[in-house]
Amino acid sequence: MQKIRNIAVIAHVDHGKTTLVDGLLEQSGTFGAHEHHDERAMDSNALEKERGITILSKNTAIRYKDYKINIIDTPGHADFGGEVERVLKMVDGVLVLVDAYEGVMPQTKFVVKKMLALGKKPIVVINKIDKPSAEPDRVVDEMFDLFAAMDATEDQLDFPVIYAAARDGIAKLDMSEPDGNFECIFETILKEIPEPDGDRENPVQAQVFTLDYDNYVGKIGISRIFNGKIKKGSNIVLAKADGEFVKGRITKLIGFHGLNRMEIEEAEAGDIVAFAGLETVDVGDSICDPNNPTPLDPMHIEEPTLSVVFSVNDSPLAGTEGKHVTSNKIKDRLEAEMKTNVAMRFEVIGEGKFKVSGRGELQITILAENMRREGFEFGISRPEVIVKEIEGVKCEPFEHLVIDVPEEFGGTVIERLGKRKAEMKSMIPMGEGFQRIEFEIPARSLIGFRGQFLTDTKGEGIMNHSFLDFRPFSGTVESRQYGALISMEDGVTLAYSLFNLQDRGVLFVGPQEKVYEGMVVGEHSRSNDLAVNPIKGKAQSNVRSSGADEAIKLVPPRNNSLERALEWIEDDELLEITPLNIRIRKRYLTETERKRHARK
């Protein structure tokens, strides 16, 4: 039997999971002296590198002494919570990371709740102890209170604590000790995390917890072997969630070591491997022995809470910037996404229109951002929450919202959230002039709130939220306060006309940009929409005037990122997304059409 330990690293977003895994890879000697690797090496996709967040859970394996430790790095963002839940079923213990200043955050509570319910053994790592404002002792107490409040067992409450600064490769078991390296983390894992159950002599049983896709071999299932051994080329039975059995053969077996994947001949109980050869494989499917198929329990995957409509771009500038613009191309791309992304759903709802549902705005904007980088051009509607009927009552998703704000802005934020049907649950001073306020709020009230929140707190506020449950519908919610400035002409913007428009509100376009009738060129300073002409030039005459040579001073336009624009738009507006630009437009481009639909 191989000596194996399986652990997952879980934490709130930005508490240092990927950086810790970097340190474990480095200090275990997994990277050779000649190998160069990037910072946060596990975040391999371009968007993860840019944003500094983990989007997809990834696994790696390290060797320490004569043990193999399989480590799964999980995302910390609430939108990818479903990913974390599946990963926890595959491991025998968990490293829970907490920031030494921020302490317990919404996502910490979410992942700890899942972990305790599955009966996993935790090791608590207090990270970032090198921060000047760090209070490790307070955070340990917070963690103990959290475990106790969530009905942890005696064994789980007796968790070991490691103090670390993962970025610098420092760890120690007691704050009074001198700084050491990660050896104490490896030793604690070997001592505290139980060995995997299961026996290599039993009939084979494995479960797929995440999917990958390769253009050469097709779908790849990454799975944990609970019993028996799997050989390359062996015949197996795939047990689907609906009870169907599909016969198949494993054409390729892949093992992990560091950041590399290598082909292996066989693997046995307790290990985490990837395999190819089964096109119909899905997350939660079991791989069983054809002579004695005993499937494992199928996995529960959390329901989506938000949906948007992807549509073919039909603006006057359609097809001028993108490579893939037809509905067939968009449909194929969305279908390919659904092959590996189990937390999202998609359905065709009309000619060139596709409804995509996910766990949150971030998850949907990441899909949109990836598509635009691949050369797609399309339109997106405003996000809507998914409303369910439970026992005859109309219910909507509610979120647990935690905000950290400077004390002087607390009142403003509470007032804003009150108008959005939020219910305040607690308020705690955090030291250094900050306070933490917790709310329960309908998910749709958070759409479009982030921009307003950052303005109200002068950019110093931090907000985090995670899904709570479905509750009865809470009535109408206040939305955007300001109207839009809408172009009434097609053409190219001129500095002269923009100079005269900037008193009307905040502009989204600069000079020499293409605009068309019905495109939103700015935010009006009042609550109504206003049609404006951004392409009017200065009338020239041969009579001298005193103000002829006055310099035109333009305020730089507001640069709308994908998330910011998606939060800003209202129901009668769309986002036009191309590889080069993100434009906001009205659904109906001409003034007469808009009036006609408003009357309806």
Q: What features would you describe in this structure?
A:
- By secondary structure, this protein is of the alpha+beta class.
- The strands form 6 sheets. Strands 18, 19, 20, 21, 22, 28, 30, 32, 33, 34 and 35 form an 11-stranded mixed β-sheet that branches. An 8-stranded antiparallel β-sheet has the order 12-11-17-8-9-16-13-14, covered by helices on one side.
- A hairpin with a 2-residue loop joins strand 13 and strand 14 (260-263).
- It is globular.
- The relative contact order is 0.09.
- The model is unreliable at 32-36 (pLDDT under 50).
Chain-wise SSE layout:
Blueprint: E1 4-11, H1 17-27, H2 46-51, E2 58-64, E3 67-73, H3 81-88, E4 93-99, H4 106-117, E5 121-127, H5 136-149, H6 154-157, E6 161-165, E7 170-172, H7 183-192, E8 205-214, E9 218-227, E10 229-231, E11 235-239, E12 245-249, E13 252-257, E14 260-263, E15 266-268, E16 272-276, E17 286-288, E18 306-312, H8 327-340, E19 345-350, E20 353-358, H9 361-373, E21 378-381, E22 384-385, E23 388-390, E24 393-406, H10 410-419, E25 423-431, E26 434-442, H11 449-456, E27 462-472, E28 484-487, E29 491-492, H12 495-501, E30 505-507, E31 514-515, E32 519-524, E33 530-532, H13 562-568, E34 573-577, E35 582-586, H14 591-599
Parallel strand pairs: 1-3, 1-4, 4-5, 5-6, 28-33
Antiparallel strand pairs: 2-3, 6-7, 8-9, 8-17, 9-16, 10-15, 11-12, 11-17, 13-14, 13-16, 18-20, 18-21, 18-22, 19-20, 21-34, 23-24, 24-26, 24-27, 25-26, 28-32, 29-31, 30-32, 32-35, 34-35
Helix pairs in contact: 3-4
